[in-house]
Amino acid sequence: MAYQGGHRHWHAVILAGGRGVRFWPRSRAARPKQLLAPLGGQTLLRRTFERLRSIVPPARMRVLTGRDLVPAVRRELPELPPNAVVGEPEGRGTGPAVALAAALVSRSDPDAAMGVFPADHHFEDEQAYLALARRAFESTASDRLIVLGIRPRRSDTGYGYIEFPDGARAGSHDLLPVLRFREKPDRDTAAAFVSTGRHFWNSGQFFWRASVLLTELRKHLPATWIAVRWIADAPDGALADRLAQRYAACDRASIDRGLLERSSRVSGFAAGGLGWTDLGSWEALHELLPKDARGNHSSGEASFAGASGNYVDVPGRHVALLGVDDLVVVETPDALLICRRSASQQVGSVVAELRSEGREELL
Predict the structure, then answer these.
(1) Helix 239-246 to helix 222-232 angle, to the nearest 10 degrees?
(2) Who's near 71: CB < 8 A, 6+ residues apart?
(3) Whole-prediction pTM value?
(4) Rounded to an integer, what distance in angstroms lies between the CA atom of residue 164 and that of residue 200?
(5) Closest by CA position to 210, among listed 52, 58, 9, 66
(6) Can you tell me the distance from the alpha carbon of 161 to that of 35, in angstroms, rounded to the nearest whole number?
(7) Which parts of the chain are beta strand (E)?
């Protein structure tokens, strides 16, 4: 999507450092989820870049990723300036990544407003989403830290929730105070949240002036503030060395829990559905893809007899499922995953077990 105009101080930061462990065995350390194309066509990272470039040109984009993924990200997004892909020496959560991005953006543009966008999100209604993103960028002039809540489609336990005041209207472009953040709840609590009409999924997308974020960072996460300011002041060509020296001094925390839950500056938008998903699991992918009359999806040849609600990704062979429901079946040359769709949020525990067994070749 071609650049259609936006404020010259708008910057986009794409977070692409996760390992996508819930998409194992497709997602691996050397080629994690954001560099895959589970929806067909472009990779998730490329889709995010194309979506955002209509309001922020590539010259004002940055990607935060793992140090070992920098070459792959640069190949995927050759339009970005060479120094726009920043490799973290280790994962320490979204707090240090977002803080570092704010320090780098602020150094290049003291008046910058920045949006933070995970690389694995999908929107069915991209035009409505982009209109809301423009509104959020414009609202950074209020010096608020702005979060984007999504109207929940179900009582999902895999998302954190944002609580707005009574009367929050989904789809409004009114900026609302955020009363509190709610961590991933159990099923009964999630159902209670959805019934109130004021609890929205926390999409993990944020908008603020970089200088405001840094002010709040100094107050609530001073060790991280000191570290990222020093790193961002690196002379040309020395950023990687400074990251290696000081990044471990940053607090290991998400931006939500480390800063936003402590700040009095947080506001948000109660967005409508927008057809949003964070593609966080095989179940989320199954929800998006075409299915037969009984809710089965297969990316290759498959037969389903008395079977419903299954997701199959087994290239190169015919799969037959008989009398089973709601399974995920995914095969790669060296691994096979079979689980209930409802358990797909826990696939990361398989990766953790493989790591504890020293099976690095499967990670």
Answers:
(1) 160
(2) none
(3) 0.93
(4) 8
(5) 9
(6) 27
(7) 10-16, 61-66, 85-88, 113-118, 122-123, 145-150, 161-163, 176-177, 180-182, 199-209, 266-271, 276-277, 297-298, 302-305, 311-313, 319-322, 327-332, 335-340
Phi, psi of 60 (to 5 degrees): -115, 30
Radius of gyration (Cα) for the chain, nearest Å? 21
Residue 190 phi, psi dihedral angles, 5° rounding:
-60, -40
Over the stretch 276-325, which tens digit does the pLDDT of each residue have?
A: 998 888 999 999 999 999 999 999 999 999 999 999 999 999 999 999 99
Q: Tell me, what DSSP letter sits at residue 28?
A: B
Name beta bridge partners: 146.
Answer: 207, 267
CA 318 – CA 296 distance, rounded (Å) = 15
Supply φ then ψ for residue 299, to 5 degrees. Answer: -85, -10
* HSE-CB of 360 using CA atoms within 13 angstroms: 2
Q: Could you tell me the CA-to-CA distances from 281 to 105, 159, 243, 329 in Å, in that order?
A: 32, 12, 31, 13
Specify the DSSP element, H or E, that contains 245. helix 239-246
